[in-house]
């Protein structure tokens, strides 16, 4: 009988390949017990954000990937952007994320100003969702923008994720946000609304109006303002991250269909 050694690769169950992102069995091969602890507040999420590896085409826009990563840092609370060196391999990124007790890793990639992509790797179950970022309006371009209240995590609102195939997608996004008590009036709100194949994002909140010395206080004490950034996501693929071989196994291959410009969500 062959003697077992620590070097032998452990047996792993890999989800079957699925043809459609709308398949009800899309997320069937992944375990969600630890992720559910984030949603219940038992675990506080922590996210490391960096760039994807550099490709020959991306060298034409070397600043776009880091720019996209920093905008994502403003979206997902309790996250930290890290500059990735050109020769820094994925295994060292994963090791650093795990060493710092991160629950998720986001890799930002951009081949041009119209080809922005993020990979969200859930380090609790190794599910990796690929999203195309569409019509990104950065924070600096948001008119009359207001910063979120310091020290308060936003409340997250998910709408339109009713189908079994979209529940896992919603969990991947929710797992990036700390669970907060339902207190109204002070916290900003991160809106994710699914419409057909797109997920619209806006970050807004009610902020107090400034009072002018010597004048009566405003009749409406607060008004709604956008915090930014603003964009839409298109879910294009799902992978299983193989932690042993440091590779991504496709569960559902990306849909490379491009889209037209989209109308953003209204403020509310």
TrEMBL record:
Pfam families: Brix. SMART domains: Brix. GO terms for molecular function: rRNA primary transcript binding. Gene3D superfamilies: Probable brix-domain ribosomal biogenesis protein. One of its GO terms (cellular component) is nucleolus. One of its GO terms (biological process) is maturation of 5.8S rRNA. InterPro entries: Brix, IMP4/RPF1. Residues 51-244 form the Brix domain. PANTHER family: RIBOSOME PRODUCTION FACTOR 1, U3 SMALL NUCLEOLAR RIBONUCLEOPROTEIN PROTEIN IMP4. This is Uncharacterized protein LOC130494399. It comes from Raphanus sativus. The gene is LOC130494399.
């Amino acid at each position: 009988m062959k003697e077992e050694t620590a070097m032998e690769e452990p047996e792993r169950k890999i989800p079957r390949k699925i043809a459609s992102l709308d398949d009800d069995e899309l997320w069937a091969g992944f375990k969600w017990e630890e992720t559910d602890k984030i949603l219940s507040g038992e675990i506080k999420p922590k996210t490391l954000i960096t760039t994807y590896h550099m490709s020959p085409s991306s060298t034409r826009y070397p600043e776009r990937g880091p720019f996209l990563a920093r905008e994502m840092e403003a979206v997902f609370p309790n996250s930290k952007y890290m500059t990735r060196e050109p020769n820094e391999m994925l295994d060292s990124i994963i090791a650093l994320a795990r060493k710092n007790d991160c629950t998720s890793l986001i890799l930002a990639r951009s081949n041009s100003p119209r080809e922005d992509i993020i990979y969200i790797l859930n380090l609790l179950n190794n599910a990796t969702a690929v999203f195309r970022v569409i019509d990104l309006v950065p924070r600096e371009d948001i008119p009359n923008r207001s910063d979120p209240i310091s020290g308060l995590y936003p409340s997250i609102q998910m709408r339109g994720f009713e189908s079994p195939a979209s529940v896992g997608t919603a969990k991947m996004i929710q797992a990036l946000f700390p669970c907060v008590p339902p207190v109204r009036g002070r916290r900003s709100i991160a809106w994710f609304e699914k419409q057909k194949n797109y997920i619209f994002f806006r970050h807004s909140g009610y902020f107090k109006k400034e009072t002018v010395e010597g004048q009566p206080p405003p009749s409406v004490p607060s008004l709604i303002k956008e915090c930014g950034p603003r964009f839409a996501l298109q879910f294009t693929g799902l992978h299983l991250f193989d932690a042993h071989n440091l590779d991504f196994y496709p569960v559902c291959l990306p849909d490379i269909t491009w889209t037209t410009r989209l109308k953003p969500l209204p403020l509310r």
